[in-house]
User: Which sequence fits this backbone?
């Protein structure tokens, strides 16, 4: 599924009412939205989603942040979607993000960084399946 990636508009950006502006970036960059929904992650879901980071010093704060309010999650479709979405959002740390990227424009900090993007095709498949059932994803 190298044409799909998972996007999350995180609680900081949803709380600041940046959802519409970020969806505009998604569409302007040529992605199709194959699935989208609003969720409020439980602690258990956030711990499972970010399990790869569980030994990192920021893990507990990250889980607290991701459960602090609702997120918008989306499966995005485009050729080379993982790389294209990572280019659209910019570096994890907004101070290092390129001008015009979503994180440069809307992120607060390395943790409260407005959006998530899958980091590989393999993880994109897993992350989309974590939040969406197959029948929620439209391929048209
Ligand atoms: P994301 O792309 O969702 O993947 C892991 C998240 O952990 C990342 O965005 C940030 O929200 C957070 N993160 C990564 N590095 C750090 C860090 N050094 N300090 C705090 N949070 C971080």
Assistant:
């Amino acid at each position: 599924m190298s044409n799909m990636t998972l996007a999350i508009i995180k609680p900081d950006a949803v709380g600041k009412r940046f959802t519409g502006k970020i969806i505009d970036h998604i569409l302007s960059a040529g992605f199709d939205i194959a699935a989208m929904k609003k969720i409020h992650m439980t602690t258990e879901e956030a711990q499972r989603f970010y399990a790869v980071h569980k030994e990192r010093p920021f893990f507990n704060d990250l889980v607290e942040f991701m459960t602090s309010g609702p997120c918008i999650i989306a499966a995005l479709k485009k050729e080379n979607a993982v790389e294209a979405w990572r280019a659209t959002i910019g570096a994890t740390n907004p101070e290092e993000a390129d001008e015009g990227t979503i994180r440069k424009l809307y992120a607060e900090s390395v943790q409260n960084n407005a959006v998530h993007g899958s980091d590989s095709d393999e993880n994109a498949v897993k992350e989309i399946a974590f939040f969406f059932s197959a029948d929620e994803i439209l391929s048209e």
